[in-house]
Amino acid sequence: MARPVQYNNTIKFEGIPEGYMGEGFMATNFEKVVGLARKNSIWPLPFATSCCGIEFMATMASHYDLARFGSERVGFSPRQCDLLMVMGTIAKKMGPIVKQVYLQMAEPRWVMAVGACASSGGIFDTYSVLQGIDQVVPVDVYVPGCPPRPEAILDGFMKIQELVHNESLRRRHSDRYKDLLGSYGIQ
Amino acid sequence: MQALTNRVKEVDRKPLSFMEKMYLPAILKGMFITFSHIFKKKPTINYPEKKRPFSPVFRGMQILNRDEEGRENCTACGLCAVACPAEAITMEAAERQPGEEHLYREEKYAAKYEINMLRCIFCGLCEEACPKDAIYLSESFAPADYQRKQFVYNKSELLIPNPKEDPEAYKKALGNRAKPTTNA
């Protein structure tokens, strides 16, 4: 017999109590716990189109080891990933595909633009290249460099972690966030 | 069928030997290789705590140089902006007023000097183009940030600390990159 799908609508995130600590127990913000858990288990989705992707391979490999930051699993399926890492030149034809990948990701999702091309177009100020992926998807962290060193990518990743850690649970339901997505034609 | 090239290799279809049929020795061999990796040196560099030395030819963020008297070398000639393939450099020239001789080395100076670090590809052509040794690429990479406007570095962020006012910070920023300034 098939199990009927049920959604638990009883969980409410409002009315969080003030956190305090005593003997044998500790009470804290749920937000902080969630932030801590999310921060240390970010699954990146590498969207690598060129040389920054090669540098990202070095970042994943044992010398720099992205897994130290809780990203052991580099997923190649948007549904399971939290962080879209766009690395490399995004041509205007590729733009809708980046957007589609972003749309397929589940909330909460973050985007990191790695390298000059993905962040601003870099040297390719031409008719065919997107002048920064922030024209199609909202970007959280930019990493400069052409290509950036693995250290610089880790630096950007730690910035993302900081962002994830301090993000309010209600941010994704706020009007401001909806307006931001609306400005990209995403509802 | 006739082979197209003379590099054809016959596939070995011999039956498995007794050792291969046993199966376990090969598994143990593989597990031993895995186990032996425990005793190998760990290659990971714990980045934020430990930093790997960069190559001496590594090109990082730009620095606007001063001479040993603390005067700015840049004369806003615009050669770096012309050489820049990414068109990341913009500047505005101004004339040195009397009494400003301790600030600027020559009669003309850059009133505004901006580099867009997101556009910049750190190729070092600006350093090559500069006739005054006013700009050079340092050993540190540009840090990541949340907003695009943060990446337009202005003159106060690019300028090296004044060697007269803050000799220690100047030495630190200088590294072993900048060429010694010659009095031209």
Query: From the helix content, strand content and strand pairing of chain B, which structural class follows?
Result: alpha+beta
Gap between N and C termini of chain B, in Å?
A: 79 Å
> Strand order within the widest sheet of chain B?
2-3-5
DSSP helical segment count of chain B: 6
Low-confidence stretches of chain A: 11-17
The count of strands of chain B amounts to: 5
Radius of gyration of chain B: 29 Å
Unreliable segments of chain B (pLDDT under 50, ≥5 consecutive)? Answer: none
Mean pLDDT of chain B: 87
Percent of residues in β-strands of chain A: 5-15%
Number of DSSP strand runs of chain A: 6
CATH class of the domain at 62-174 in chain B: Alpha Beta
Distinct helical segment count of chain A:
6
Percent range for β-strand residues of chain B: 5-15%
The share of residues in helices of chain B is 10-25%
SSE order of chain A, as H and E?
EEHEHEHEHEHH
Overall geometry of chain A: globular
CATH topology of the domain at 62-174 in chain B: Alpha-Beta Plaits
SSE order of chain B in H/E notation? Answer: HHEHEEHEEHH
